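Collaborator request, handled under Task 6.
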Amino acid sequence: MHKLLLLAFFSFLLSSCGGSKSASNNPSSKIESTSTTSNSAKANKIVSYAKTFRGTRYQFGGTTKKGMDCSGLIFIAFGKEKIKLPRVSRDMAKVGKSISLSKSTKGDLVFFKTSKSKKSINHVGLIVDSRKGSVLFIHATSSKGVIISSMDEGYWKNAFVGARRVM
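Structure tokens returned to the collaborator:
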């Protein structure tokens, strides 16, 4: 019985990257921003900072170069620009404005359900480029760490739930 519980716990950790650390954010609260730079300039800074974590290994709940999970990457990238987001992906998916993928731009967020057994969003990425119908996003995967992927990849296309603009 103990081994079964342990196996179930580790399965949960590997299938989710929502993170476990909370920043005491109310998902329906307004996003705070103190910067006066344009949204486009902010998006460029957020994406540039997120890219500095490429190659960082995956760590559940991680927010540093030593280890990072998907929502941790988004949380700290936006936080560097003084934009407060919830810490977990399913709560991030409740903030901002829902947009179609075809209208998405650099700095928007994309959300996924990567587990058939879970009914809630458990993965988030940050759009780094969106042109001519091709969307690239940076995210942290449990198998490869922080990487850039394409929405054209079948896995991500099938797991896609929605996109949101938070700036």
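The cover message to the collaborator said: "Helices lie at 2-15, 39-51, 70-79, 89-92, 154-159. The first helix runs from residue 2 to 15. Please let us know whether this matches your experimental observations."
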